[in-house]
Amino acid sequence: MINSKDRAGGIVVLTGAGISKESGLDTFRCSEGIWSRVNLEDVATPEGFRRNPDLVHQFYNDRRRGLLDAAIEPNAAHLALARLELEWPDEVFIVTQNIDDLHERAGSRSVLHMHGELRRIRCEACESEFAWDADLSVDDACPHCKRTRFLRPHVVWFGEMPIGMEQIYDALDRCALFVSIGTSGNVYPAAGFVSHVRMYTRARTVELNLEPSTGATLFAEATYGPATEVVPVFVQ
Ligand code: BV8
């Protein structure tokens, strides 16, 4: 449970694919996960995009269409975090590895997508960035500079710098509570946040996950179970 001491400095919540699983979106490393069906090197690296942009566009077009399916809704875990932010305005900061928009659709406002956003694209020629819900192809022209073959998903691939790192570490350095939800703790720098908090702060560290993550032993507290069950209980 969250207590009043947790408010001194703020609450940082790191989320991963597990928080969206019960909304119907796939995780990456569970059995049947995304990386069991497609090779990460081919679709989530700049090299893969240069080698075969059509394959990468298809991978993200399929996931974007999936996310826009009417059946995909925020779940009780997303809604519990949105309620927490309402109760404690300006003290809850969600850093998500997810590229879906379920936190925002649940009502959360203070959300940073460190791995980018599925419903946004950017132009590698003019660096403009756009909301984009349609399929994307190499022949699409940048709405700003009109050039083709320069548009890409606004997503952070392996080997690329995640978004908002300075803001994230500022928040980690100040927080009184760090909660990790629905992530396997395999991808850096996100997987290193708990070690950073332990080293530089006196914050509480809590893992809420279906099962112990790779970094489970680094957390002072943990509750295991489906996010729609454990998150509402923890934040009440
Ligand atoms: C960078 C694209 C530097 C978007 C993704 C060795 C050591 C340290 C680092 C590295 C290293 N070797 C390589 C690196 C760097 C690399 C990395 O960490 N590699 C790993 C594989 C070792 N990291 C990077 O490249 C990062 N960039 O380091 O840049 C730099 C510095 C200067 C200048 C330039 C560059 C970039 C990382 C981002 C890569 N992009 N995806 C997309 O397509 O979505 S990562 C991919 O994995 C996803 O984004 C996802 O967010 C992320 C993490 O996965 P999870 O969210 O944890 O999902 P997963 O399936 O793994 O786990 C789900 C969990 O949920 C499970 O634990 C499960 O039990 C649980 N669960 C399931 N159901 C439920 C549930 N929990 C609750 N309820 C449920 N119902």
UniProtKB/TrEMBL annotation:
Q: Which GO terms describe its cellular component?
A: cytoplasm
Could you confirm whether the keyword Cytoplasm appears in this record? yes
Per UniProt, the cofactor note for this protein states: Binds 1 zinc ion per subunit.
Q: Which residues form the Deacetylase sirtuin-type domain?
A: 1-236
Q: Which reaction does it catalyse?
A: N(6)-succinyl-L-lysyl-[protein] + NAD(+) + H2O = 2''-O-succinyl-ADP-D-ribose + nicotinamide + L-lysyl-[protein]; N(6)-acetyl-L-lysyl-[protein] + NAD(+) + H2O = 2''-O-acetyl-ADP-D-ribose + nicotinamide + L-lysyl-[protein]
Give its E.C. classification number. Answer: 2.3.1.286
For binding substrate, which residues are annotated in this chain's numbering? 60, 63
Q: What is this protein called?
A: NAD-dependent protein deacylase
Upper taxonomic lineage = Bacteria, Pseudomonadati, Pseudomonadota, Alphaproteobacteria, Rhodospirillales
